[in-house]
Amino acid sequence: MNKEVDVLLSNPYLATLAFFAVAVIALVVFLTIFELVTKYDDWAEIKKGNLSVAMATGGKIFGICNLFRFAILNNDTMIHSLIWAGYGFILLLVAYFIFEFLTPYFKIDEEIKNDNKAVGLLSMMISISLSYVVGACVT
């Protein structure tokens, strides 16, 4: 089975399609997990025009995709790329909880839900920045 998959993935068009499909599916799964840990409904808030939620969610999307970028560039197989991207996602999730913990004066989720653009922007930048830090460590 692995031999057939290797032959298919040796074609750059098929490899790109395969990595794209896996990354999109993983993005949906990872965003669903983020949705479960936030205290607001991301997509309902975005539909209402909450720019802070859109920025925070956009940062998560960028961060997750950036992790995949590094994982794909630095690994030979799909499974290794997925493992590294998954590990990076766990670290982004941990960073989310650390960010919440390190701001005792206000609750991050409440501020983002209330459309505090400064907090939404900061949340976005943390997700993006840490994805580069984690990505640099991918081997």
What does this structure look like?
The chain has 139 residues and is mainly α. It has one domain (26-137). Helices cover 83% and strands 0% of the residues. It contains 7 helices and no strands. The chain has helices at 2-9, 12-37, 42-47, 51-74, 78-101, 108-113, 117-137. Helix 2 (12-37) runs parallel beside helix 5. It is elongated. The two termini are 26 Å apart.
What does the overall shape look like? elongated
**What share of residues is helical?**
over 70%
Beta-strand content = under 5%
What oligomerization state is this entry in? single chain
Subcellular location: Cell membrane
Pfam families: DUF350 (PF03994)
Membrane topology: Multi-pass membrane protein
Protein name: DUF350 domain-containing protein
Task: Offer a quick outline of the entry.
This protein has 139 residues and is mainly alpha-helical. Helix content is 83%, strand content 0%. The mean pLDDT is 91.
Key descriptive features of the protein:
139 residues, mainly alpha, elongated
Topology summary:
Elements (H helix, E strand, L loop, with lengths): L1 H8 L2 H26 L4 H6 L3 H24 L3 H24 L6 H6 L3 H21 L2
Helix pairs in contact: 2-4, 2-5, 4-5, 4-7, 5-7
